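About this split. The held-out portion is used to measure sequence recovery: a designer receives only the structure tokens and must propose an amino acid at every position. Recovery is the fraction of positions where the proposal matches the reference. Here is one held-out target exactly as it appears in the evaluation file.
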């Protein structure tokens, strides 16, 4: 007779399964990695979806090199809220589209603060509740896409979970509602944000079951295998890049960006506004001028005049250290500097920005038509890169190539904001010296595509990424 193990997916990379025996302890582990084609270049995965063809159950695990461990523990060996003395949170699904549910495990009777905040640290909803020991459900409904954090705490304990909403919806949102029905009395495993096609997935697994496994990586085709698991195993997927320019690019915060093809090369058609590097490192918000001036080689982001609406419209400004994320200066084409960009994208070098200007100049008649490189700038090219909104005469834009540059202003190295509606500058991956870098920009006073050779690395400018 087969022994069937049921696994509740809610936390950490080790997932506990409870069986009807009290003594047996065994485990099987599936480890995954990925390579670029048949090369040895390691590709960090986004997620792996596992489907049990025998039981019909499924789950999805996340991470660059995800793994799942079936640890067979008897009920007597399981962790309970009493033993663990921790607040536990599990969101399903997560990421989500407009609505999700959060399972909250409370280890003891007490007063708990439940706070929902956005990526800027602004509180969207806050409640204080007296809760008994047990498990509760939080209903979450949001009408704005982005990253949120749900934090639950009392005087001794705290827990937080990161939430990503992929889509906006019309109408009023109902940010967070606690279902205060009778708490469920049950043993629990450590909770996590692993997610499944089902709200709470009960993944049934028996030794020898056929598993269909899909590997996902943004910018690559899905790779699929089928295997029967009877022992721990490590599998390496061979990932093939998708089309040269996907219509939408995503960042770790769940923001999506339009793209455009110019001269056969794929560019972002919007400015970056992520608060997280792709390795998971946070990019702190730095609003105080003196703090910005003192960043040096430390990362930071801001939005013009510290106004959230400006960040939504123009994107976020970053210092050069943030744009590069530890990479050295590059003057090559391509730059090979991933920096703040997603995997498969890079921060353009000075050479690549110059090539963009040269292509547009040549595409519009070149020298005979006045499209020349004069005094370090590409004349008449700027109007083709400007959006058709926000600019005023004589610097209005035609946006002929879908680049959609906006006059988002800049932040000086001393931390002050200036030139909204007049200028915009984009970082390059190429430094001039230890203090300055090359940047490229647009201005309202002319139709030049500006090359700035004295941009202080501590300034706040915008980032556009190019596809590798």
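Reference sequence for scoring:
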């Amino acid at each position: 007779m087969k022994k069937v193990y049921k696994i509740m997916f809610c936390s950490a990379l080790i997932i506990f399964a409870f069986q009807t025996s009290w003594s047996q302890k065994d485990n099987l582990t599936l480890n995954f990695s990925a390579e670029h084609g048949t090369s040895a270049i390691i590709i960090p995965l986004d997620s792996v979806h596992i489907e049990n063809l025998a039981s019909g159950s499924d789950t999805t695990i996340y991470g660059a090199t995800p793994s799942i461990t079936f640890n067979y523990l008897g009920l007597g060996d399981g962790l309970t809220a009493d033993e663990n003395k921790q607040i536990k949170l599990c969101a399903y699904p997560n990421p989500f589209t407009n609505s999700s549910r959060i399972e909250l495990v409370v280890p003891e009777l007490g007063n708990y603060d439940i706070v929902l905040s956005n990526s800027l640290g602004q509180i969207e909803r806050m409640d204080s509740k007296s809760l008994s020991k047990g498990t509760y459900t939080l209903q979450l409904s949001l009408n704005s896409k982005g990253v949120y954090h749900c934090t639950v705490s009392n005087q001794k304990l705290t827990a937080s979970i990161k939430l990503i909403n992929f889509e906006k919806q019309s109408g009023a949102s109902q940010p967070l509602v606690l279902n205060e029905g009778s708490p469920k009395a049950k043993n629990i495993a450590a909770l996590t944000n692993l997610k499944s096609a089902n709200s709470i997935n009960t993944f049934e697994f028996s030794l020898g079951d056929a598993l269909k496994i899909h590997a996902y990586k943004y910018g690559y085709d899905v790779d699929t295998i089928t295997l029967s698991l009877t022992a721990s195993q490590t599998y390496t997927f061979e990932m093939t890049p998708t089309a040269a320019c996907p219509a939408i690019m995503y960042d770790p915060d769940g923001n999506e960006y339009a793209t455009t093809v110019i001269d056969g090369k794929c560019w972002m058609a919007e400015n970056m506004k992520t608060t997280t590097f792709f390795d998971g490192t946070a990019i702190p918000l730095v609003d105080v001028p003196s703090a910005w001036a003192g960043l040096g080689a430390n990362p930071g982001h801001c939005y013009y005049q510290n106004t959230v609406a400006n960040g939504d419209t123009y994107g976020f400004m970053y210092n050069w250290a943030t744009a590069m994320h530890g990479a050295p200066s590059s003057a090559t084409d391509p730059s090979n500097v991933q920096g703040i960009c997603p995997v498969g994208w890079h921060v353009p070098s000075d050479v690549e920005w110059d090539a963009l200007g040269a292509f547009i100049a040549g595409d519009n008649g070149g020298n005979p038509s006045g499209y020349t490189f004069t005094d370090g700038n590409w004349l008449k090219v700027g109007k083709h890169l400007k959006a058709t909104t926000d600019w005023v005469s004589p610097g209005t834009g035609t946006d002929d190539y879908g680049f959609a540059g906006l006059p988002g202003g800049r932040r000086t190295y001393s931390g002050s904001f200036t030139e909204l509606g007049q200028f915009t500058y984009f970082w390059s991956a190429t430094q001039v010296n230890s203090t300055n870098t090359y940047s490229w920009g647009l201005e309202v006073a002319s139709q030049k595509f500006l090359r700035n050779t004295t941009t202080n690395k501590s300034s706040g400018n915008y980032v556009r990424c190019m596809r590798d």
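Annotator remark: Helices lie at 81-84, 289-293, 308-314, 320-324, 350-363, 382-385.
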